[in-house]
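Researcher: Here's a chain I'd like modeled. Treat it as a single chain, no partners, no ligands.
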Amino acid sequence: MHSLFLRIFMLFWVAMALIVGGSIAITFTVAAREYDSQEAQRRPSVAIPASEALAMGGIGALKSWLEANKNSIPDRDLYIIGPDGADILGRHLTESAARRLEFFNREAMVGLEPRPSGSPPPRNFRPTRVAPQIVAADGATYTVLLVPRRPSIFGALSLPGISLTILLIALVVSALISWWLAQHLSAPIRRIQEGARSLASGKLDERVSAGLEGRKDEVAVLARDFDAMADRLRSNRSATTQLLRDISHELRSPLARMRVAVGLTRQPSADHARQLDRLEREIERLDSLISQVLKLARLHGTDASFAREQFAIDEVIEEVVRDANFEGAVKSCKVRLQGNANATVHGNRELVRSAIENVLRNAVRYSPDAMPVEVLVNRADAGLVILIRDRGPGVPPADLERIFEPFYRVAESRDRDSGGEGIGLAITSQVMKAHGGSAKASNPAAGGFEVRLSLPGEVLAA
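Model: Modeled as a single isolated chain. Structure tokens:
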């Protein structure tokens, strides 16, 4: 049985059958006890009119009374056993009646003293634990046996005599309920299975949570998680495709310039030194771009594996600030450092340095001449926050998140002229994620542009 639907269906059906069967068995046991109790209460009430009939008309009247009343109790057989041990009507005793009579003769029968002739015997009976006795005028003793017929579940429960119909109805109803439950549980799972196959075949637009919006159970949550996974896969594939296009575009530009330089070098009147310098610059740019792409690929995802060590974060920040001040001196841009972390970081020193440097160099590059760039370091219980703020033109709000995507540029010509590859902030974001932190950009109300680098307390130590 490999089908989940059949497993669920059979499990529910068998469980419901066991519950119904067990309930009936327990109820039957209780009802059977009440059944025997009622029988014990009926014995004297049956023997009294029999005693009256015997007293008033003798054995003939007793036989007539028994013939008229032998079926008066629907679920009992009424016998009157004479001194010879046989029913006075000559009927064959059932197995149950014979056992009761044998038990009575062995355990309960006690001889009676002969009655004086002519003494009135009204209601002359003796109740015993098994069966009452009545005594004739001549002293003959008759035993009244009230024997239950073969007990049945439906009889003991006082149900009508349509046991097979009731059983079939119970089976059909439980089967329908089990089928509905199995369908209710397995249908979304089958849909998820089909969706997984579609995803495996490359159909990333497949979604499975349609129609389950109102459900809050685990299966519906699984379907919504599946759709979220499909959205993420589609987004990742789109991002990968776009990244490959961007890399191809970025590699094609320096290669094209190198071809031009080679062509110019082959001309008789070419300035070979100048063209060789051009080729060297383009080779360096290609090397830098490839190194950045490889670094980004290695950092992709939050579970990136790299060497970790303990290092003082303040030393790294101060080193990056000194280098940025050296570059900013050309445009009289001063980098101001405020605050300190007083902590060590468990991570990769060069990657963290590269992440901070990428943001700070961008801030210096786009800051107006003679305008300062601020680096604010703040240590809190939640971790470490590094704010890098410049007085540049800022970024359109719609692009604040996209600037951390590889090769995304807010202003294409400006970044190309400044020598940026559009990948530095993407590396910064991935480095922060790899260390459990984040990188976020914003436009302060006072103007300019700000990048917030956060490291969690887990990677910090005093």
